[in-house]
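Step 1: inspect the first sequence and its tokens.
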Amino acid sequence: MIKADDFNYAMENTRVVVAPANAIETYGQTSFRFRLVTEPMDEIGSVRLRKGMIHAERPRILAPQYVSRMLLEGFGERAREFAGWMEEQKDFHILRYGFSLRKTDLSEQLLREPKEELLHRIEGEIRRDGDPIDALIEGIDDAWEVCLMKFTMDLIQRSAGPNVAEWKRRGLL
């Protein structure tokens, strides 16, 4: 189990070297191909390269009625009062993003190469190939999945504005 300090360390030390050119699609599923470079603590002079896919589900707008029903499960009278208030709010909507990391797409290699050289080489490959779904991430080996979570949170933040603008343009918000 990951400790809070390790979690925080991974969040603070995750760096997206190359972000995907695409944002999360407003009306469909979006996939991102990642390469995550880390340094194993027990393998001096080595770097670990993990490759895989992250799939983002179509973002959804949750109306106040739906959110209030979610809140009522297992809660008491005060929660019902709050849920009633939420249902009266006409402009209160919550965006829901969902991700799945498909472990079947995951591969891992241990390489004997300086980390900065590997990052530079992969960055050059990604920029040369120009695939808008590619990403390169530098992270922490023991908490590599936290690094991917940080990456997905950044994608959500980057995508939310354009998604909301599109829904407003179409009169959905």
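Step 2: inspect the second sequence and its tokens, then contrast the two.
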Amino acid sequence: MTRSAEAQTRRGEVFRRLHAGKPILVLPNAWDVASARIVEQAGFPAIATSSAGVAFALGYPDGERISRDEMAAAVARIVAHVAVPVTADMEAGYGRRPEDAAATVRAAIAAGAVGMNFEDSPGERGEPLLAEALQVERVRAAREAADASGVPFVLNARTDVFLEQVGEPAGRVAHAVRRLNAYRAAGADCLFAPGVTDADTIATLVRQVSGPLNILASVTSPPVAELERLGVARVSLGSGPMRAGLTVLKRLTEELRAAGTFGALAGAIPHAELNRLLDGA
């Protein structure tokens, strides 16, 4: 085994342990090397990429408009510049077939990642979710590809039942639980249910989902300490950090255009600090 393969294996083992219990795993998502280094410097034990953030930064809308190769290349660049484990958001696997899911896992592993988000929403109008049986086969293929690599790899299977508001509200919890438990049985390590923010629903999911639960945080989500008390294993922020950064830029441009003043620059990270952060990264 090469030194880089040994390092990836160690990172994979660390990342897997981070899902084993308290403390809750908190992942502020990154979209490029600078954002990843900031997250790492803040002391977070792992980094998750944001597929939307990467796509936006490269000029694509979200929803698999970016190619698998471009996404993997962005992940590889982040992995090469941080010491902590990196898990890659690889959308819905860039293709509907189980073999496409397997190819995406192999691309993420080749990029140096030790985990992957894998969703059941194909990003196509009129079809908010893939058929459950098909997604189960895709999860199984992803698991088999990960295991064949020999890299400890956390497969985070996501359902968009809540995010896409599939079906009547009263039936969404049962629908999401059924899907997530099926994905768990097919080999997923962690189960992701974005679009849920109320404590009661989160607590129900924790009780009924048969594996570690990942929640997507927003401004209306319970704080981290409460999520941990509810039993959530992992919380991520998705494209939120990237969009928050772009919001600062939007305010700056509006102020500059309207008033010709520079107040939005107040509090900016000093140039020298960023230089130090990236020097040798």
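Step 3: confirm your contrast with the notes below.
The chain has one domain: 3-251. The longest strand covers residues 115-119.
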